[in-house]
What does this fold into?
Amino acid sequence: MRRPFRWRTARRAAGAAALVLGCAAGLLALGPSGPLAPRAADPGAVPLPQSSADQLQSAQSAVRDRPQDPYAWEQLGMADLDQARLALDAGRLADADRAFRRSLALKPQANYGALTGTGMLANARHEFAAARDAGLRATEIAPDRAAGYLVLADAEIQLGDYPAATAATQRLLDLAPTVPGYTRAAYDLETHGRAEEARIALERALDSASTPGDTAFCEHRLGDLAWDHGQLDEADGHYQRALAHTPDDYYAQAGHARVLAANGSVPEAVADYQKLVSRAPLPQFLLELAELELARQQDAAAAGQLSALAAEVRLLTAGDGNVPADPALMLYEADHGDPAVAVRLLRREWNRRRSVLVADALGWALHRAGQDDEALDLLHQAAATGWHNPLFAYHRGAVEAALGRPQAADDLREALALNPHFSPYHAPLARQLLAGLPAGQAPGSRTTP
Amino acid sequence: MSRPPARRTRRLAFAATTALLTTAAMAGPYLGTSQAGGHFDAPGVIADPQANFTDIYAFTSPDNPDMATIIADLQPTQLPASTPTPVNYPFATGGARYEIHVDGHGNGGSDTTYRWTFRTEDRRLFGAGPIAVGPVRSLNDRALLFRQYYTLERIRAGQEPEVLVKDAPVAPTQQSIGLMPDYRTLRDQATTALPGGGRSVATQSAESFQADARVFGYFILGTAGPVPGYLPAANPLTAVNVSSLILQVPKSELALKGDVSRNPVVGVWATMSRPGADLAKDLRAQDAFYRQVGRLGNPHIMFALWGTFGGIATPGGPEDRFNARSADQDQYDQAFLASTLDPAPPHKIQIAGNFPAPPIPRADIRALFLGGIGKNNGAKFGYDLNTQAMNADADPNALAWADELRLNLSTPVSANPNRFGVLDGDLQGYPNGRRPNDMIDNSLLRMLEGEPGGPSAAGLLPTPLFDLQPKPATDTFPYLNVPHALP
It folds into this structure.
């Protein structure tokens, strides 16, 4: 009975089968874990965690073997993104972009992986509105999958839609109460001034971390949280643990250098920072090093970092005007470059997104440009979520001092109380400002609500 | 005192920095908002390997027929370690719950739950590095730096949890032949007696799954393959390990009302839940509540219903809801129920010209996964074997479709087990529970193609010329083989 049936349709089936086989090959042969993929009961959880480089390699060989397989391209894009994130290697973002485009060209419909990948890529490039669109589309077609909410949560919090960010984070956390969910929950909580709860969330993230990269991420975030609250030893413990798991965790390297400087080991800190910025020249790291040098009157030593930052601003201003402005880079421009340029770029950014980070940077740039009334308005907007951020408090206090507002003392004290070492450059300025305030502004003398 | 760096060095460093910067700027702004506490480039990989159940086995213990054994394997495809490349695959901690559920009423609810929670004792500097620094000959060996312990509780429906054992040791991840020359001894030390009879062990094991790659081909493609990465009927699982929770308890403890003769059928499944959080409330004050993140009852249910997994599952489809749903809610997911009445692989196989799809609706497949083999529930075997309708104390009006691996505790142990189980006349095998050596996918394929209600599709899977499978599990507790290791 089967035989005649088989022959009747065999010819038609052969072509289709060959095509399908090509696709399935991609599913089954993705690196070492590929052949085992059907073993997983969970559609979302297939491969074992491998080192990021391994994953990238096996994804690359998969697309070489099966260039027509959309899933292989999507996986390559994800591996590129992960590599970009861990190695702070921006070149990988272009690779990820290419891979996701290829995947979407091969499978334009219901390609959830490439869609969320595109959203993650947009977030990485600070194109948050595009990321939000991708996140909304993904969560619409698959309301019970976690990855779409991850894209959405990251986009909304940077766009400054905090209720939407919390809602997306909550849904992500409900679907995936592991590292991706709890780290974002921690960021949401921290942004809302709930630092102790953020610590609990990060501890839970750490409990579920199963790769060295994830463990290091949770540890360095715990370190940053402790640092922002002046707990230097605790912060350094976390940075050390992060580095024990992932020696290349650049944020932990920066954190450790920061603690070294705060503890008086400035030459060691400078050496660590120099090693760091030669490999990961992030504006944040360059600025930290430059300000450390400036704080100890080594202006010549700071010149290298400052020129690098200036070069990055030039690249930004030479662009087509659509390139997002990084708040850390803009703080450099406000303090050590041309505040008017910072104001212009940050106004553009503020029109795009209403994040408290942008409000703070724009407020500070306006202050540096002499527009203190508008500056204070923005710095109050930066305080809207209640984030206990020493830099925010310092910025607010400094502008209030310039305007002769009575809250200045409280805000400057808050910055220094949160972390007396919040910046080697600005913390002494905060102390000077505070000392120079007219008497009578005793603690708690806040006169207006 | 630090000396200012030589000018040449600095210029070189600066040039390198500028080049990197240019690359960065050309490629777009960097990840992260680059303000301390502000960067958000958190990990994006959602996969949760510690919650990934790969197999559930449930069977009458051949070495003690008054006992039943339930095994949950998880975190599959663990690479064997060697001394130069150590690995560690711990069980999840931080309050995560691994649970085995037992349902005698057939309503999808859990009459009895066995719950494992793990804690870790880590003596390594900064919690990193190899877990053994010398040969480990006992669980108390000082060379063993990373140790896990578990608490096992039993929860009878509606009652407070009873602690069965507290702080029982876990057999660690096998490090290498040199570092753990006698893993069997470690596993024996980790085997813990339970009050009221029975024992449990949490250990690493050699993967025991018997796989025929041609079945994967049929499920996904409608043809036998070749399936890349597999030789026909040979599987690469022969060299990898899994984590296993192995529980052996008296049958009377599992059966409804403790009465195996009146209520011989139990449905079992495993879940993994992690503590969740409600961001609207203070995390310091709120009671922990749990989110189910992993689930497994019938082996390969998704594969058999949709022929998909991982990245090719339809977004928004019933697969997306499966892991988070409790078994007693299965009956309300209409798309899921509809899938069991019309599974995808027979259509793919028909389109590929290999076998005609049996007519739908497939009440037999719904019964296979969600009801058990019964005379009157759609199954085509023609007899009652393992539906809870056979339990005298189960309310027949309360039976509900639910994905469970159903086992008749009164089926005698087969003297000569047949790995294709019930279809080939061995009533103790799959799908009446599942023994570690049962070859489930072959039976599953044949049942999907209509057996025993129609012509046999056994011809789709002729005896392979070459059949490389994991070493068979043994007949004595804990049944699974010790993990593979390299020198």
